[in-house]
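Researcher: First entry.
Model:
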Amino acid sequence: MKRRPLDGCKVVVTGAAGNLGQALVKGLLEKGCQLLAIDVNQEALQSLRPLASDRQLRFLRMNLTSASRAAAWKKVVQFQPDGVILNAGITRIAPFMETEESDFRKVFEVNFFSSVGALQALLPDLIEKRGFVAAISSVSGFAPLKLRSAYSPSKHAISAFIDTLRSETPEVDFLIAYPSFLTTEVKSSSYQTARKSRGSVTPEKVARRIVQGIEKRKPRLMIPLQARVARILWAVWPWLYMQMMIKRA
């Protein structure tokens, strides 16, 4: 398959102010892309300002849980993107018995329904431009994860959503990335203070692999090797995966 050149491409990145989001922004700028960076955190977005000129890097503050986001996506359409990276995500780290239904709804609003809204607005133009969509799922997008009874099903949902669109929309390249734990601080949305993740891969490495995957038109990425091993274990020896996952959680 012919490699996709990224130089000059217009790309939308959601969750751009987070750890992985910032790494994606930097990686795409190095490829010569023009970016529209979206995040709810205006201050964190502005910290990206020194990376590029106004022509190369624009910002849009958007609350992805807000009912007004449909109007905001109309502004994004005016950017005329060639591709979108659906990176925005939050989690809720707690036992199910301590998780309210409202927690589930908030996690799904950001991790799943924001992507639905984005593609309802952007997909017609992406089809016309034969563009790309990259969605950030997780190892918990194909296997269970203790204490993430809201987060894990939301990542399953985005994976199923993107694979379904892939079957309906051959004009667009769809990539699903399944990274393992990142070696960085993670937040359970606004619920809890940040805590250090015992991760196995840096945001920079994940971002580099995703950018390369877009260029090579890959359908999915397991990052790093541990993610591929986890998928095999869950498919073939689920009891072993469960034991290892519970010990690690």
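Researcher: Second entry.
Model:
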Amino acid sequence: MKTLDKKTSLFFILSGIFITNAIVAEIVGGKIFSLEGTLGISPMQFSLMGEFWDFNLTAGVILWPVVFITTDIINEYFGKEGVRKISYFTVILILYVFLMIFLITKLTPASFWLDANNTDSEGNFLNIHDAFNKIFLQGLWIIAGSVVAFILGQLLDAYIFHKLRAITGSKRLWLRATGSTLVSQFIDSFVVLIIAFYISGKLSLGAVISIGIVNYLYKFVIAMAITPFLYVAHNVIDRYLGKTLAHEMMDTAAAESKTFL
């Protein structure tokens, strides 16, 4: 396969993985799940800022580890500009998806569809149209918060990644990948909550900070845990590209990113 074909194919594959997981994470983000309940353990009920909290997380966090790894790989081989391009494009697609969902929820439901799905698994009455709308529709503040947090987190991740790369060179991939993720996700965790819940008046600042800390603790642990998978992905890509092309791309990405530092 030609060098250009390999580079293009790699970017398409990474972009597809990145976009798919980012969009799905946004769509399923409306579900809040209990981490303790999922693991079959009792709620921890820890005290934070005068309130008791369990590890209740948005379902979107399940997919973000894949986004973290993909972001770091794109950073490594295509530089900060590669991350910027795919991040901006993903934001456009997320907004498009939410627009289509909004329009679809306005369609008049077919009567036979309502009748065929008028009870839940326990035999209770169910308005499937209302359920569909509640699942897929999110408040405008939540959409705004998630989009702003996403783009800020991605751009900050790329910036810090290459700041660290300028210091470490080609060594210590774990440091620049984990370091950039931890800082960017700290900002991401609080921006989305402040916009979606505090500015909109739905939650107090104390509650927002408490939830943000819980979410960030989860992301912190995940960022540390996925480091070995980053090296696995790195090795697979190096074999696919070949050592010469892989190092050329990484050196080019590092050199071009210096102009943005």
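Model: Note on the second entry: The chain has one domain: 3-260.
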